[in-house]
Design brief:
Largest sheet: 10 strands, mixed
Organism: Roseateles terrae
Radius of gyration: 47 Å
Transmembrane segments: 6-29, 163-187
Oligomer: single chain
GO molecular function: alpha,alpha-trehalose-phosphate synthase (UDP-forming) activity
Keywords: Glycosyltransferase, Membrane, Transferase, Transmembrane, Transmembrane helix
Bound molecules: 6-O-phosphono-beta-D-fructofuranose
EC number: 2.4.1.15
């Protein structure tokens, strides 16, 4: 059917073109054939006139008229000659034959004969007029005027036209026929080529047939070969997405996530495990208790998912009032207002916290995975604590599980060993581990003395997720280098000791703000006024914000260098440009962090001394915790948000800034080394190590016209709204659902087979 449409689309214009060509060509052809006939008649006329002239000159003068008449009458016996007149040089008619019209004077006839088309319409038909001297040597010679019948050329012209039409029609039909056959053949070729590719034959069959690796070159038609690999890859991705999203293409929201849990996971219990807890209870100075939300990308992402799914979240109870707020089972319902899920706290001793968290996780794995020029430190004692704490959390998971097959969501590098530990006790559990930080290349990872144990622990997971495909690839290559495992790239699985793990990328995100939430936000102009007043900024300040944990991976030093260079290179910004840097306190117990934070304070002071003046400081370093509302106000007040991570799994600050800007204003400057840069190309993407490039991006952002800001921001907002955190969780849970279904079916089939063989034995 498609090929017929294709041919019709091709044939109709072809036929129209041929018809137009015929309509244009026929009059032209007509004119040409008449010109040829006219030339032919003139030549014939000249011959006749010459013959007659010779005869006329032989006639005796007194016998002249009668003899002449007889001569001319014989001349017109030629069927093509209608009439002849002998005219004097002064155009008097001396004599003429019968067929020569009486009304036509010699003068008129000779005038017409001079024309390019010497044609005269008579009642008896059209004639061609020729005018010839009787004696060519004599200037005042008599003239012979010959009238040739034009009905013959006219008849021939009609015949020529008819033949021409027949020729064009036959030609058109022949071209159309050939076109149809060629189109049909080549369409079939394409279709069968495409079908072969989709069936996988393009890759597989030639391999089987030839046993060589030149499958692609052998299989698809040559014109498809460059496309083949790409098309297959895209199709696989499409299929993958459809399979993951599984269901109507509605936006991802809490409701859809809950539906997915109900339908695909049959409402199975969800247990989250992370080091950082989502709510920290703290003792206030007045003896009261306050609740705080930690600065953590992990918490920002997983908390809304838990609100939607309910279940239990197991985390380290690190707040000074945490023990005062739990029940006898160390549980507390959170969030404090809606109590959607249970937070189960685990208490760690100082040694445990020191060895597992500060030591192995943050001095070892954190710099190991971030490759941010800080040497990882691996201590035997830290490793022992790391193992022990992983076991304690694993035991808590088993204790919290209400069935033998809960869905366990393991978060981050603090728990690399936990998946295998849980698997040992709950073999049927679905364990989804998400690694929130980058995964380095095999060489970098290889410096860890316990690399094999870490990989074995992680491969206890059913699904292992990273932010980007690049991190998945690094992980798979690391396993390939250090373990004996079966890797199936086609299915993105790694089977270790017979147990498969799906290794996939799931880019994390945020919950898109609800309408209720947005109603509580200040208008951008109000937010700006409030921030200017509170921080005592110039009224016309150009405000850049940076919001980070006070961590050496965030590129805060590089950001300060870029601000300093901006004020040097573009002095017009002195007195106006201000970087408001929020740096949430983190991991202060570690020397590396304390030194880094001191250095940032020193550089800030230097820049402020160099470029500051009364009432103006180019850098405002706010090294304290900010709650969500305060951050929203800052984001909405800002002219730009600056994210300069030296290496970051995803970075959710940039997504929060985008979500906050419902006025579609504000510019995002984003490090290309943050996972988010792959999703948000409308940001000004920079290399934070290149100070000049970041400086120019700051200058460009400060000068960007509102229209360009709007275009970029609108597009960024579309991406973040659609690719939100419910989609992140939904895709993982949908994959888990498929996995569980497959497992159940396999188990059932195996049981029946076993029962069958037992019956036969009996
Ligand atoms: O988002 C990455 C992350 O490492 C989380 O795993 C962690 O909760 C967060 O940063 C903050 O770190 P910490 O919990 O050590 O303060």
């Amino acid at each position: 059917m498609k090929s017929i449409h294709l041919q019709i689309r091709f044939l109709v214009p072809l036929l129209v073109t041929l018809t137009v060509a015929a309509l244009l060509a026929l009059p032209l052809l007509d004119r040409m054939t008449l010109r040829w006939f006219s030339r032919d008649l003139s030549a014939r006329g000249a011959m006749v006139a010459k013959t007659l002239s010779l005869a006329i000159s032989d006639i005796e003068p007194n016998a002249k008229l009668d003899r002449l008449r007889g001569l001319l009458e014989r001349g017109v016996l030629d069927e093509r000659l209608v009439g002849i007149a002998l005219c004097s040089a002064t155009n008097e008619q001396i004599l003429s034959t019968k067929g020569f019209p009486g009304s036509l004077t010699c003068g008129e006839a000779r005038e017409i004969a001079k024309k390019q088309d010497p044609r005269l319409e008579l009642s008896s038909g059209a004639v061609h007029i020729g005018d010839f001297p009787v004696n060519a040597q004599q200037a005042d010679s008599d003239r012979l005027v010959l009238l040739h019948d034009l009905s013959l050329p006219d008849r021939r012209s009609i015949d020529t036209r008819r033949y021409m039409i027949i020729f064009i029609t036959v030609l058109g039909l022949a071209v159309a026929g050939i076109t149809m056959i060629v189109a049909q053949l080549s369409w079939r070729g394409w279709v069968s080529g495409m079908r072969a590719i989709l069936r996988g034959e393009g890759l597989v069959r030639p391999l089987l047939q030839t046993g060589t690796g030149s499958a692609v070159a052998d299989s698809a038609p040559p014109e498809l070969q460059p496309l083949e690999v790409e098309i297959r890859q895209h199709l696989r991705e499409l299929e993958d997405n459809l399979y993951r999203e599984h269901g109507p293409l509605t936006p991802w929201d809490p409701e859809r996530l809950r539906g997915l849990l109900r339908t695909q996971l049959r409402g199975d219990q969800v247990i989250v495990v992370s080091n950082r807890e989502p709510y920290i209870h703290l003792k206030g100075k007045d003896g009261g208790i306050t609740v705080s939300r930690p600065a953590s990308g992990l918490v920002t992402a997983v908390e809304p998912v838990m609100r939607a799914c309910s279940g239990t979240w197991i985390a380290h109870g690190s707040g000074s009032a945490d023990r005062d707020t739990v029940d006898e089972n160390d549980r507390v319902a959170v969030p404090p207002d809606t109590k959607d899920y249970v937070l189960r706290r685990i208490w760690l001793t100082e040694e445990e916290e020191q060895g597992y968290y500060q030591g192995f996780a943050n001095e070892g794995l954190w710099p190991l995975c971030h490759v941010a020029h800080v040497r990882p430190v691996f201590r035997e004692s830290d490793w022992a604590q790391y193992r022990a704490v992983n076991q304690r959390f694993a035991d808590a998971v088993v204790a919290e599980a209400r069935s033998d097959d809960p869905v366990v969501l393991v978060q981050d590098y603090h728990f690399a060993l936990l998946p295998a530990m849980v698997r040992e006790k709950l073999p049927k559990a679905t364990i989804i581990t998400f690694w929130h930080i980058p995964w380095p290349n095999p060489e970098s990872f290889g410096i860890c003395p316990w690399r094999r144990e870490l990989l074995q622990g992680m491969l206890g997971s059913t699904i292992l997720g990273f932010h980007t495909r690049f991190h998945c690839k690094n992980f798979t290559e690391t396993v390939d280098r250090y373990l004996e495992a079966r890797i199936e790239h086609e299915h993105a699985t790694i089977s270790y000791q017979g147990e498969p793990t799906l290794v996939q990328s799931y880019p994390i995100s945020i919950a898109w703000p609800t309408d209720d939430e947005r109603l509580r936000w200040p208008a951008p102009s109000e937010a700006r006024r409030a921030v200017i007043e509170r921080l005592k900024l110039p009224d016309d300040a150009c405000i850049a914000v940076g919001v980070d944990r006070f961590d050496y991976t965030k590129g805060i030093l590089e950001r300060l260098h870029a601000v300093e260079r901006l004020l040097e290179k573009y002095p017009q910004w002195q007195g106006r440009f201000v970087l408001v840097q929020v740096a949430a306190p983190t991991r202060n117990a570690l020397e590396e962090y304390r030194e880094f934070q001191d250095r940032i304070h020193r550089v800030t002071d230097r820049i402020n001394q160099r470029f500051g003046s009364d009432g103006y400081q180019p850098v405002r370093l706010l090294a304290e915790h900010h709650d969500h509302a305060a951050l929203m106000e800052l984001y909405r007040a800002a002219d730009m948000c600056v994210v300069t991570s030296l290496h970051d799994g995803m970075n959710l600050v940039c997504k929060e800034f985008i979500a906050a800007r419902d006025d579609e204003q504000g510019v995002l400057i984003l490090s290309r080394f943050a996972g988010a840069a792959r999703e948000l190309p409308e940001a000004l993407v920079i290399n934070p190590y290149h100070v000049e490039e970041t400086t120019d991006a700051l200058h460009r952002a400060a000068n960007m016209p509102p229209n360009e800001q709007r275009e970029r921001m609108a597009s960024l907002r579309m991406t973040v709204r659609e690719f939100n955190v419910y989609r992140w969780a939904g895709r993982m849970l949908a994959d888990a659902g498929q996995w569980r279904l497959r497992e159940r079916i396999t188990r059932r089939v195996q049981r029946r087979a076993r029962e069958g063989s037992e019956a036969i034995d009996a």
